Fold this protein.
Amino acid sequence: MRLLSLSFLSFILLILPYSVTSAADMPKTLSAGGQQLVLNGVGTRTKFVISVYRAGLYLQKKSGDAKQIVAANAPMAIRMKVLSGFASADKMKSALITGFNNSTGGNTAPIQPQIDQLLKAAFTEKVNKGDVFDLVYTPGGGTQVLKNNKQTTVVRGLPIKQALFGIWLSGKPAQTSLKEEMLGKDF
């Protein structure tokens, strides 16, 4: 029994560094459309015990209201930093497709051309540990997708922004704990 307890404690101590969320590598502010956005919250997307990426939500002012954030026609951004080689381009595409389906309640048809544009432009090249993706929305300007500070595409329209941000903030998010962290619940 003692050996089992020690084994369990060793396992917990081993995986702890992989499950801790930190805002240390997320800037406190980002610029979008000439406006400064503040870091609302940051969390880590995990699969099993692997930290896949860290995501930060940036807003004009802090908010914990997911529905309002998703619906808003206001400047905002999500920054994702890849933490693991587990996050390949194909896996990221697949996760986004699932996320769009969940975010829209399975009704992606009205925004399918924009989804295709985003997936084709942003996730055709290899994804490496340390890569940073910025999804920056500005009213009238659309959602700018950047990989390592280089623009890959701009996807126009509020509905695609709502579905995209809904991947993390909808009623069926990519990961509930990540949603809560991005909303500042544990920040």
